[in-house]
C-alpha cells in the first residue's frame, strides 16, 4: 500500500515506516497518525515481517502533534471525539518496534517514540516535552511513560521547563538504548531489527509483552505472567529447535511456530 504521510519499505524480514511530512518537521496531524497506524497494522499482520523500525528524517523524528491543526479545538469536541485516544494504536502492535530517532522528538513525537518498544537515537537527536510552553501538557503518555522510563526528577524537569535533552542525556537517563552517528542510525536499527526478526516470533512477542507489562503490573503479577509465558514457549516448535540446535552445536532454524 502507499500512504500520503509515511513511506513503507520492507528490508528482509524488517518493515520500515518513515514519517514523511517534511514541510512540517513530521508534525503529527490526524492524517499522518492514521497512515502510521495503518502501516504498522499491515506489517503486524504480514507473516514475512518479524520486526518493525519507525523513523523520521535527519532533521526531525516528529516535532510533536500538529499545533496548527489542534489550536482551535474546543473541549467538548476533544471530549466527545476522545481526542488522542486513537494514538494508542501503536501500543497494540504485537511485533517489536524500534524507534530510530534523528533530530527532534518533541511532544507527541517523543510520546510516539516511547510507545515503541525500543529507542535508538542519532547522535544529534533532541527529546523534549515542550507542551507547557504552549499552555497545555503532554497528552499521549508523556507524563506517564517518560516518568517510568527516566524517573520523576528528569521527567518533572523536562515537562515543567519544556527544555530539551540531548541524545547523550537521554541515553544516560534510560530513555534511549543506543546512540549511533545520525547517518548510520537507520541502517543500524534495521540491523538490530533483522537480528530480532531472525529469532522465534512467538517468543519475541512474548518477551515484548512481558517487558511492557512490567511497567503496569505489580512484581508478583509480572513474575506470574513471565513464568506462564516462559512455560508457553515450550509449546512452540521453535523452542524445541532452538535447544536441539544448541545441543547439536549448530545454528537454529526458527520457523516462527
Ligand atoms: C505544526 C509545526 C510543528 C508542530 C514545526 N512545525 N513543528 N507545525 N505543529 N508541532 C512547522 C513550522 O511551523 C514550520 O512551518 C516548519 O514546521 C518548520 O519549523 P521551524 O519552526 O521553522 O523550524 P526550526 O526553526 O528549525 O525549529 C524547529 C523546532 C520548532 C524547534 C522543532 O519547529 C518547534 O518548536 N516546533 C514545535 C515543537 C512543539 O511545541 N511540539 C509540541 C507540540 S504539542 P512553516 O509553514 O512556518 O514553514 C504536542 C502535544 C502532544 O505534541 C499531545 C499529545 C499528542
From TrEMBL:
It comes from the Eukaryota. Keywords: Fatty acid metabolism, Lipid metabolism, Lyase. GO terms for molecular function: enoyl-CoA hydratase activity. It is an enzyme of class 4 (lyase). It holds the Pfam family ECH_1. One of its GO terms (biological process) is fatty acid beta-oxidation. One of its GO terms (cellular component) is mitochondrion. Its EC number is 4.2.1.17. InterPro entries: ClpP/crotonase-like_dom_sf, Enoyl-CoA_hyd/isom_CS, Enoyl-CoA_hydra/iso, Enoyl-CoA_hydra_C. PANTHER family: ENOYL-COA HYDRATASE, MITOCHONDRIAL (PTHR11941:SF54), ENOYL-COA HYDRATASE-RELATED (PTHR11941). Belongs to the enoyl-CoA hydratase/isomerase family. This is Probable enoyl-CoA hydratase, mitochondrial. It comes from Rhizoclosmatium globosum.
Amino acid at each position: 500500500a502507499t500512504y500520503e504521510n509515511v513511506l513503507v519499505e520492507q528490508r528482509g524480514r524488517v518493515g520500515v515506516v518513515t514519517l514523511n511530512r517534511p514541510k512540517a518537521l513530521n508534525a503529527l496531524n490526524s492524517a499522518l497518525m492514521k497512515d502510521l497506524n495503518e502501516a504498522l497494522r499491515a506489517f503486524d499482520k504480514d507473516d514475512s515481517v518479524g520486526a518493525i523500525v519507525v523513523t523520521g528524517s535527519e532533521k526531525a523524528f516528529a516535532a510533536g502533534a500538529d499545533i496548527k491543526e489542534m489550536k482551535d479545538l474546543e473541549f467538548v469536541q476533544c471530549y466527545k471525539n476522545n481526542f488522542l485516544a486513537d494514538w494508542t494504536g501503536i501500543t497494540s502492535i504485537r511485533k517489536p518496534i524500534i524507534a530510530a530517532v534523528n533530530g527532534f522528538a518533541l511532544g507527541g513525537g517523543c510520546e510516539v517514540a516511547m510507545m515503541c518498544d525500543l529507542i535508538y537515537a542519532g547522535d544529534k537527536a533532541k527529546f523534549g516535552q515542550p507542551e507547557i510552553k504552549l499552555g497545555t501538557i503532554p497528552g499521549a503518555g508523556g507524563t506517564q511513560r517518560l516518568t517510568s522510563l527516566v524517573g520523576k526528577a528528569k521527567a518533572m524537569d523536562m515537562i515543567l521547563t519544556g527544555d530539551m535533552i540531548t541524545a547523550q542525556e537521554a541515553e544516560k537517563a534510560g530513555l534511549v538504548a543506543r546512540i549511533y552517528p545520525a547517518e548510520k542510525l537507520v541502517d543500524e536499527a534495521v540491523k538490530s531489527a533483522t537480528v530480532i526478526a531472525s529469532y522465534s516470533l512467538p517468543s519475541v512477542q512474548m518477551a515484548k509483552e512481558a517487558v511492557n507489562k512490567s511497567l503496569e503490573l505489580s512484581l508478583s503479577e509480572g513474575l506470574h505472567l513471565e513464568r506462564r509465558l516462559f512455560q508457553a514457549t515450550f509449546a512452540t516448535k521453535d523452542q524445541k529447535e532452538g535447544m536441539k540446535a544448541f545441543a547439536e552445536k549448530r545454528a537454529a532454524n526458527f520457523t516462527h511456530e
